[in-house]
C-alpha cells in the first residue's frame, strides 16, 4: 500500500461529516479510533517506509518519499525524519533544512498530518512588515526657551495638531492659548485665547475638522468643548458643555469623542446631540474591563476602535465599535517602569500598521506596543528625566506628520520635539 493511498484514506476519514462536539457518542469515538488505528498499522507496514530501531528506546528513524502540498506535483521531495515522543525534525534535500515544533507522538496520529503542520519559512518572511525607527536625538520645533508666555515660549503644553504644511498647533495649557508654529519658525502665532476677546482656560487638546475648516478645542478650565473657525478667529461655538473634558478625537463621519476625566467615561457627540452617547466606561471608577479610571487622551482608527489612555490604571484600553467592555492592549500590569508597565500614560496614537504609541509620562519615554504582545519597546526617551535632545521630561501629547515623523509634547521642558523617521 502506498503512502499516497494512505494519505487519501486519512483525508477521507478526517473529512467525515462534521458535527458539533456534544453530538458525538462513545460508539462514534470508538469506531473513529479503531479506523485510525487500522490505517496507522497499514501505514507503518507500507513497503515505501523503512524503519530501524535506534539505540534509544521509543525512537524510530523513518525514510519517506512523498510529495507535499506546499510544492508542485512535479517536484518530488525526499525527506528524512526522526520521530520521538517529544519532537520531529526533518530536512528536505535540494531545498533547505528545517526544524518542526515539538509534536506529541501518538500511535494513531497520522504522520503526514504531523509533517504537514509545518509551513515553509519563506511564507512567514513574505508577510513581515518593517517597523518605523526614529532618530534618538530630537529636533526642537516649538518652544524650548524655558517656561514663559513670550511668542518663542510655551508653558506646560499638552497636545498638538500638525497640518499638511507641517505647521504645529499647540494647546499651550498654562498660557491659556492655542499657538501656531509654522515649519522652521522660531516663534509662534496666537490663534485662540491669550486675550479677553476669545478666552480659553487651560486648553488640553486640539483637533481639526477639515470638512468645516475649524478647530475643536478641549477647554478644560471652562468645562466645555468649543468649535473655533480658522477663517474667522472671533467666531466660536460651544459644542459640549458641563464636562470635565480631557482628550478629544474625531472619526471619519465627523462625530466627536470626548474623554470625561471626572466621570471615567468617553462619549460621542453627533451633530445636534445634547448629552452625547456613552461609548466607553461609564460604570464608575475602577480597573475592570468595563471601567476606566481617569481617561486622558484618546485616538480612534478607521474601524471605529477607540484607544484610551486609562491614566490612573496605567494602561491603554481598546474599545471596539458598540463594545460593552474594552480589552487591555498596553500595560495593565500595575504602575512601574518595566517593558510590561506604564506610569500615568497620556498621549496615544496608532500607526498604519496598527502599532500603538504611548507617552509613558512618569517614565519619561514613548513606548510602542503591538496588540497581543506581552511587552512593548522604548521608541524614544527612556534616558531619565532631563532636557537633553535624547531625553524627555513628562511627555504628554503625540502626533505624526504626513511623512510619519514622530512629534512629542515634552511637557516638563516646555517644548515640542520632532523625531525623524529613519529607513530600516
UniProtKB/TrEMBL annotation:
Keywords assigned: Repeat
NHL repeats: 335-366, 391-422
Keyword Repeat: yes
InterPro entries: 6-blade_b-propeller_TolB-like (IPR011042), NHL_repeat (IPR001258), TRIM-NHL_E3_ligases (IPR050952)
GO molecular function: ubiquitin protein ligase activity; zinc ion binding
UniProt xrefs under SUPFAM superfamilies: YWTD domain
GO BP field: proteasome-mediated ubiquitin-dependent protein catabolic process; protein polyubiquitination
Pfam families, sorted: NHL (PF01436)
Glycoprotein in keyword set: no
Gene3D superfamilies: TolB, C-terminal domain (2.120.10.30)
Matches recorded under PANTHER family: E3 UBIQUITIN-PROTEIN LIGASE NHLRC1-RELATED, PROTEIN LIN-41
Protein name listed in UniProt: NHL repeat containing protein
Source organism: Adineta steineri
